Structure formats: structure tokens, C-alpha cells
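Q: Focus on the chain.
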Amino acid sequence: MLPKDLVVFLEQDCRGCGQRLAFAAGLAKRWQAHLIATFATRPLALDPHAGFAVGAGLSAMLEGYRAKKASALERARKEFDALTERRSFSAEWRVSDDEPHETLMQHARHASLAILGPPERQQASTTALGLSERLIFASGRPCLLLPADWSAERTLGHIVVGWNGGREAARAITAAMPVLAAADAVHLVVVPDAGTKGLHGQDPGADMAAHLSRHGVRVVLEQQPGDDAGKALLQRCADIDADLLVMGAKGRSDVSEFFFGGATRTVFGASQTPLLLSA
């Protein structure tokens, strides 16, 4: 069953937010899903000049901050209204104004899929959402990370799936199953020498390919040489001009630290393909 509710996170002064919203609206239309647009305003604490303003300069800085926030909010709301005015799906608009981290995560937890911008490693500055990676670990929901310049017109027809026999990859495949079943072609990429010994069996990836096939997925198993799974996944995405990369986000998180394993770190740093991730 395709997701029945999506939340797309928008940010103040972010590059590609209009395309992100349009892409999410396109998914909601195709899937007949409820669309939630959550606009996260930029906290004053993230303004690099906020801590230096005093006296009359402080008042001017606050006035400028409020004006920029109001302008960005109005612009995003107009884009949302234009995309959802004559819709065949339901939609709602939310504003997250300096909400605590845990409260912000609730927007994702109450939806089937969260849609965000690119990973933090590809962004020029810290945003109100913090690291995109935090949503993956904190929300407990699959997350779709879109490149800033990704076209809203593209569909999820050609998909690369990374399989290493691990828990995170299995969770990502489960979360993506409705999308995989609807795709034109799914390339299941396995890099046996990069995985934990003993997880792949005699024919690496064959059991997972059979599992996907039983669910109606048009899957092709591809065993890649080498020991760098992240590099292999990125190369395969480039080779076929993939519309989506599905993989597990392998890492460790706690209150103050987010650490990612090699393949995840490589993909987060360089992927130009949308990422569907689950941790």
C-alpha cells in the first residue's frame, strides 16, 4: 500500500524549497495521499550577527529578522496554496516557529514519509531543521532526501537499492516496498566484499532479489566488485540516471552526536540522486 500521508519540511531561505514542495505535491497527487507542509522558521540564534547587536542596532536587527521571516513565510504559503488549490488530495499547512527538536520530530512521526532537502554535508549553512540526518534517527520514519535542484516532474521509475544483508537495509527496503513495486526497474546492488562476512550466503543478494520478485518488483540483481559500497551505489545511480536510491542509514546517534558508517557517509557527501533512507 502506498503511503497515505506525507510531510514535506520547508525552510526559511533554503535553496530548492519550491521544487521540494512541488515534488511532494506531485507524489501526493499520484498516491492520493494527505500532504502536510511544515514550514520551519529560522531561529534568531542561527543569525551570525544576532550576538553582536546592541542598542539601536539590536532593535534594527530584530525588525529585519521579523520582516525576513514574515516575507519567507508568506512566499512559501503562496506556493503551497497555488499547488493545492485545485487538488484531488487533501493538504494542510503548518508553521514550526522555533519549536524544540523533539516537537519538530512529531511532524514526521505522524506521517508515513518525511521529505527533506539534501544531507547536511551538502548544505552551506545550518538550518532550522538542524541536520537532515537527525530526522532519520529521531523520527522513526523513512525519509526522502531531495537534492536542491531536483526536478519536480521526475517520477520514481528507475531505482537503485543498496543491499548489504543488514538490519538498516532491510528496514529501508520494507519502507520502500510500495514504491519499488510500482517502479519500472529496480537494480538491487550488492558489493559482497564490502559487507559483513556470512550475511550474504552463497549467491550474494539472490535471496533478497527473490523476496522482491515475490512482491511484484521488477528487480535485477547486480553484484559489484570492490570494497567501497558507497562509491559503487553512487556510480550505479549515475550510470542509469536513477530516480531514487534506497539504502539503510547505518550509524549511531545520541543526544549530542551523530556518527555515520562509511557507505552512508560517502553517499551523504556526494549523492545527486534522491535518497530514501531508514535507520
